[in-house]
Amino acid sequence: MSALYRAPIFFLTSLRGGWRLALSAMFAETVFRVITSGFYGAATQALRKLEPAWLAVLIILLLAPAVVQVLEYGVHHLHGTPNVKTGVLVSSAMTGVASLFNWYAMRHGTMLTGKEGQSFLADLRNLPWIFWRFLSAGPRALLRRMRGKP
């Protein structure tokens, strides 16, 4: 799924080099994400129960994306992707949000693999609710804090 929303980033940011280079950059990103997304997802799943939660968030927002983005930059630089810095910058922002969402979903039992996982269809059915809970987590925490509840 990661390749579905990241590949268009590289297509759009590479268009100034022409549509052939843009398609090539999109293909390079798709291959990169197909290869790396499973590893990244497994790492996120391994961190989902880490306490304190803020430490997991710090690792997920800074350390893990830094490694992946450096690799991504290397792939696109070697590939000759036009406007690679802009593509990687936009992709990095998406990585932060997507990583937090994936971690949140996994902490709530969705998007897991192995014995703890459920079917992909069941995950897809749960995603709207998980997405809503993810988006509202900050405001809900703020309201709890204002009311003096932990």
What topology does this entry show?
Elements: H1 2-14, H2 19-47, H3 53-79, H4 84-107, H5 120-146
Helix pairs in contact: 1-2, 1-4, 2-3, 2-4, 3-4
How many distinct domains?
1
Q: pLDDT under 50 segments (min length 5)? A: none
Instruction: Kindly report how far apart the N and C termini lie.
Output: 35 Å
* Helical residue percent band: over 70%
Rg, Å, rounded: 17 Å
Structural class by helix and strand composition: mainly alpha
Question: Can you count the helices?
Answer: 5
Number of strands: 0
| Biggest sheet statistics | none
Strand content: under 5%
- Provide the residue-averaged pLDDT: 89
Shape: elongated
H/E series: HHHHH
Q: Can you describe this structure?
A:
By secondary structure, the chain is mostly helical. The protein has one domain. It contains five helices and no strands. The chain has helices at residues 2-14, 19-47, 53-79, 84-107, 120-146. The radius of gyration is 17 Å and the shape is elongated. The protein starts with a helix and ends with a helix. The mean pLDDT is 89.
Structural features:
mainly alpha; 150 residues
Kindly summarize this structure in a few lines.
This protein has 150 residues and is mainly α. The protein has helices at residues 2-14, 19-47, 53-79, 84-107, 120-146. The protein is 80% helix and 0% strand.
